Amino acid sequence: MTVSSYSPADPGDLVVRVEAAGAAGTAAAVERARAAQPGWRGAGAAARSAALTHAAEAVEAHAGELAALIVREVGKPLAEARGEVARTAAIWRYYAQAPYAPSGAAHEPAAGEGLLLTRRRPYGVAGLITPWNFPLAIPTWKAAPALAVGNTVVLKPAPEGTACALRLAELAGLPAGVLTVVPGGAAEGGALVAAADVVSFTGSTAVGQAVVAAATGRGIPVQAEMGGLNAAVVLPDADLGQAAAHLAAAIAGYAGQKCTATSRVIAVGSAYEPLAEALVKALGATPAGDPGDPATVCGPVIGEAALTRLTGAIGSARAAGAEVLTGGARVDRPGWFVEPTLLAGVPAEHPLLVEEFFGPVAVLLPAAYLDEAVALANGTRHSLAASVHTRDLDTALAAADRLDAGMIRINAPSSGVDFHLPFGGTKSASHGAREQGQAVLDFFTASRTVTLLPAGTAR
């Protein structure tokens, strides 16, 4: 069986075709990683730090090539692709310092002489399952911390991001068995979860829930990021022009294919009409176009199935009485392009208000007061990110305190988070420990308590 990745901007462009690893090949890769792990950990902090620094330097040295590959393989607009490459290098550098961080602490015993230590140690082999939308950054923000603390890594990327993952691993240049990419799909993912010692997943809710069930059934640590149905709350006192610009970026940027993209816009009170007008204008200024053009904000969606699902949902909403305020159609050009779309009057139980669609489509909702807006924003099981737009600090703090989302941004797009901060949501959006920042270092290690007593001491 082969894995084939085609460009969503030009479906006739075959980016890469490789043999799938298969379940047996994936299990064998895990065993090679397990054999390499003692040497990788035993190499020491300086060697691991140097290796991660080298990976950062290699990414920087090939920045133009990598950005072009991201544009070609997943259709990310060039400006964002360049930003992802820069972020990828920065993440490798950030975690290159982690090997020197304290791996435990010393404690006083409750009574008598002796010494109590807590120490954190790597699990062994980290199995990583990653999506296609950030084909360098997400594999890096999982792999770099796992490697920094002494695990080895087996990475199963989404088929649509295979070329990027293979090139990233090649450039990292780590010792054999330390970072291995296994191309494939569900069979390889299942085999990886069945063999690894710790698992980190990013992808759809349905697959994520299956990964969590399989990993917890084995008794191994697992974290899963499963997307969001993210809301933006806009108050009447907000700078509506700025808010519209932020919302348009969060709806249409990279064709809405970010788990932190805005898909529900909640306008409070008198903000509704002027916000609708401003947002229609802002979305109209971000047409879907060639991702290789530096001016493009909204490129193609990832494939024909995604395009069909999006246009079908828009059509069914219209049939149910919704109004398309702007967009709503496929773009007449080769590739999988859909216009940035804003709808109003969508019925409450319509899939657009219940499911994550991963496209440049948002629904505008009215709320009489902040209380109603917060209730609408919280009325989802996919609570990853939210944004609040207001000039009033008290209102911003009150909303931030009451929103369920794991990440809340004030007067900023819902999309985006600094890589040195914890990343994750609530409810069905996430399972387990947070990603990114320092928190993930604890996830990839197990705590041990060591008691040291003077020789001959009985206790």
A few lines on this structure:
With 459 residues, this protein is α/β, with parallel strands linked by helices. Helices cover 40% and strands 21% of the residues. It has two domains: 2-226 and 429-451, Aldehyde Dehydrogenase, Chain A, domain 1; 230-410, Aldehyde Dehydrogenase, Chain A, domain 2.
Overview of this protein structure:
The protein is α/β, with parallel strands linked by helices and 459 residues long. It folds into 2 domains: 2-226 and 429-451, Aldehyde Dehydrogenase, Chain A, domain 1 (3-Layer(aba) Sandwich); 230-410, Aldehyde Dehydrogenase, Chain A, domain 2 (3-Layer(aba) Sandwich). Helices cover 40% and strands 21% of the residues. The protein has 14 helices and 20 strands. It has helices at 22-42, 45-61, 63-74, 78-96, 137-148, 162-172, 186-195, 205-218, 240-252, 272-284, 304-319, 370-378, 393-402, 439-443; strands at residues 2-6, 14-19, 104-107, 115-122, 125-130, 152-157, 179-181, 198-202, 222-225, 230-234, 262-268, 323-326, 341-344, 361-367, 382-383, 385-389, 407-410, 426-427, 430-431, 445-452. The strands form 5 sheets. Strands 12-13-14-11-10-16-17 form a 7-stranded mixed sheet, with helices on both faces. α9 (240-252) links the parallel β10 (230-234) and β11. α1 (22-42) packs across α7, α2 (45-61) runs antiparallel to α4 (78-96) and α9 (240-252) packs across α10. It is globular. 52% of the residues are buried. The mean pLDDT is 96.
